Amino acid sequence: MVIGASGMYVVAVVLPAVQAEFGVARGVASMPYTLSMIGFGIGGMLMGKLADRFGVMIPLLVGAVCLGLGFILAAMAPNIIVFTLAHGLLIGLCGSSATFSPLIADTSLWFVRRRGIAVAVCASGNYLGGAIWPPIVQHFVETVGWRQTYIGLGIVCFLVMGSLALLMRRRPPIASKAAARGGVDLSSERPFGLPMGKAQLLLCVAGVACCVAMAMPQVHIVAYCGDLGYGAARGAQMLSLMLACGVVSRLISGLICDRIGGLRTLLLGSALQGIALLLFLPFDGLASLYVISALFGLFQGGILPSYAIIVREYFPAREAGGRVGAVIMCTMLGMALGGWMSGQIFDLTGSYHAAFLNGILWNLLNLGIGVFLLRRTLRKHDGGSASLQGASA
C-alpha cells in the first residue's frame, strides 16, 4: 500500500519542475494528477474484479510492472502529453490502483473477529505513503533532478512491489464456517433486504457524498489559510496534521468497527465529520484552525475503510474485490467533484463559507443513506427474530 501510494503523491512534488521544463501553464501541469486520480478510481474496480477471479497476487504483479514502466516512461517524456498519459494510464489506471481496493478487499477476506483493525492497518498504508514519499522525492529532485528521480522510483517500485506480490499467492479462506465461529457476517444475495444492484448503488452514492464533503478541507485548506492572511505554509502544516490524524483515525475506527460493525462505524464517522465541517464556519482563528484540522482528520479517516467492511459483511465474499473497487472509485470521483465544486463556489461567492455549507449538505446525504440502510438492517433482524420465535412456539 505504501509503495503504491507513490503514484498518488509524488506528482505534486515534481509539478513545479515539470511545469518549468515543458513551459506550460499551471492548470496544464496539474492534469497528470487529475488523470492519475481518475485512473486510480476506475482501475480499482477493474483490479478488484481481477483479484476476485485470480487472487490478489496477479493485480499486484500487473501494478508493479505498470508502476515501474509508468515512472520510467514519464521520466523519458519529451512533452507534457506523454507525461500526462504515463500518469493516467500506467501509474494511475494500472499501477497504484492495484494496491488499494484489491488489498483492502483481500485483507477483509483473511480476518473475521479482527477484520476491522486488519483493514484499517492496511488502509493506513496509503496515508503513510503520503507522509513518506514527498520528502524523499523532493530531496532527490533537488540533488539529481526529477527525471533521474522518476527512473529510480520506477525501479524501486517494480522490485519491491513485485517481490512482495509473490508472497501473496495464496487465496484467502472465505468459507462460511470460518465466519460462524465468530465475528459479523451478514452477507446474502439481498444485502439490507434490497436487490444487489440497488444496495451497491446506494453505497456508491454514499461514497460520492462523503468524499465531496471530505474534499473541501483537504483540497482547499491551504488556499483558505492564504485568503485569511495566515500564508500557504500554515495551510500546508494543517493539511499534514490532518493526514497524520487520519492514520490514527483509521486505526481507532478499525477497533470500533470490530465492536459495532462497518455500517455503524460509517454512521459515526459521517456524523463526526459533519460536526467538524460545522466548526469551520464560526471559527477561523489560527489556533482554532489547527485544532479543527486535527479533529477533522481524526473524524474522517475511518470512513473510507468502513465501506470495505460493509461490503464484506453484507455482500457475497466472492465479489468483494469488484464491489469494494466500485465504491472506492465513487469515493475518488467524490474527492474530484468536491475539490472542483468548492473552487467553483468560491469563484461565484468570493468566500469559502458557502463551500463549507455545500460540504455539510453532501455529508447529510451520506448520513441519510447510512441511517436508511441501518433501519432496513434492524427491521430485517427484528423480522427474522419474530419468525424464529413463532417457529419455536
From TrEMBL:
SUPFAM superfamilies: MFS general substrate transporter (SSF103473)
Pfam families in the cross-refs: MFS_1 (PF07690)
InterPro entries with a match to the protein in the record: MFS, MFS_dom, MFS_trans_sf, Proton-linked_MCT
Record key words, sorted: Membrane, Transmembrane, Transmembrane helix
Residue ranges constituting the Major facilitator superfamily (MFS) profile domain according to the UniProt record: 1-378
Transmembrane feature ranges: 30-47, 54-74, 80-105, 117-136, 148-167, 201-223, 235-253, 265-283, 289-310, 322-342, 354-374
Name of this chain's protein: MFS transporter
